[in-house]
Sequence to fold (642 residues):
Amino acid sequence: MAGDGTNLGPNPDLQTEGWRPDADPEMLELQADAASARQTEELHADAAAEREQRRQRRYLVRALLRSPTFMTGMVIVLFWVFMALFSAYVTQSPTNVDAAASLKAPSVAHLFGTDELGRDVLARTMAGARTVLIIAPLATILALLWGGIIGLVAGFYRGYTDEVIMRLIDVLLALPIVITSILVLSLLGTGLTIIIITIGALFTPVVSRTVRAAVIGEREREYVMAARLRGERSAFVMAREILPNITQPIIVEGTIRLGYAVFTAATLSFLGFGLGPPSPDWGLTIANERIYLQVAPWTVLFPALALASLVVGVNLITDGLGRVFSK
Amino acid sequence: MLRLIGRRLLFMVPTLILASMLIFALAEVLPGNVGRSILGIYAPQQAVDNLNHQLGADRPLVVRWGTWAGHFVEGNWGISPVQKVPVRPTVLKALGYSVVLAGFALVVIVPIAILLGVFAGLRRDSVLDRGITISTLSMTVIPEFVSGVVLLWVFAVWLKWLPVTALPPDGSPFYERFYYLILPAIPLMFLELGYIARMARVGTVQVLAMPYIRTAVLKGLPRRRVIFGHVLRNAMVPTVTVIGSQVGWLIGGLVVVETLFAYPGIGQLMVRSAQQHDIPMLEASVLMVAVLYMVANLIADIVVALLNPRIRMGG
Fold:
């Protein structure tokens, strides 16, 4: 069977009948040597590439740490993440009703005052971060996942596949996102999972557009050609060759979508398509307490300012990332 | 130019048909059983079947869409089963209210945003530029109901400069209406401000790098004429495009602002119909919003073409 290409040993010429290279101790040794030499060489190349990558990453991290925009955003967002996780240990209970202390102005006992049921507004404001911080990141991850796959496929194959996918996306974008989510949520009912999936699905078209554009910029590069000539499968080329090279636009798109996801999640809960009471969610609280705006403005203003700070924080991160990456 | 408009109008037809199918599918397929979703889970099966037959919900989907779309084109939009009023006048009246509010917001904010953006672009990378960019961006990303309640508290409750409601009492003169619209319009203005200002800034920065600006400056044109005659005009193209593409967010903003201020526009009608499962009202108002959205994009395209001689002359 020598030389027919189906049984490629280390050296096809030596494959004579009855002689097996893996049975010859000398040959085995030679083979091992060659293999280890090849390995070291590859290791060297890999190590160099890795060092380069690490150096770049260190540079990016240092640039981000020095960006005041990025760091301000980071501090604000991390504060709210901390509060979402640990507010129970820091403040009073957000659902503890005290009818005697209804609508009390801010005081030492209640720094942000109390709402109409005598619940501590400080505790509710701090705990209110939780729902938004569950919905928005998960919805963003879903959108990145789906949009990433669709964008990779459309941008990689081009032609007919691309045409069909992009036309479908145009139609999905023909309706404003808030409108479509209201339509879907009013008909399917609400709940954390449905809200996350709806927002994720509605953000998918925009993400896939961004990813597609990035893929089209990469697909004509030499390394993609090389991988194809090596005979790699399309899925491999997309996932292991192109994807690592378009992480920066995907990260920036992700933070942009995260900002919009916070915005959309809060808006939906304000409109009554989110969680119901007694959740301390900011949007819901503002919707329910706004009738007390004239007598007890603190019940509305503190959650409003909290939500505003979170949204601005996420957008400062986006702005900082975009600035550092575009340098 | 006319050919361009004609082509864009023609392109709107398939998009509109597909959008109407999407709305129809969302409203009629997702809830599964239309009769059940109107009557609720405790209604007897017989009543649900009867209502389904009466509504035609037991016929094939394509037939139902065809009938619905046909009636819609004829102007027969049906009667709301919840409010017991004809859909068309209700939706069109609400749409009129919304167009007044959104139009007022746009007319005020577009020139301000463009001026701010051009100003920032002319002083690129200065403190002023960073200040304008960050503050307009923040105003844009804060949800409208947040800026809305804060503004309500500051101007209506605390300072008492502006009314709490969005509509004047019946019988007030016409111009009174705008005084009442100021407060609801500001969150919508914030929403648009950031994007328009940012595009105007980017446009300005790009135009300033063009050789013809250098020529204009070197041949001794006064700075004002360079800015108004060359920079502003050419920076307008990306700016107008972004105004068109932001209409979707403006409509989303209308939904929120109208709910917050109890303003009887199409956004409030849509939310109420969605909450009450008023399907004909919901379908009609969402479809009208889609039409509005596409018309706004068409207008933006036409204005861009008017500003850009290459498109204007080339047809």
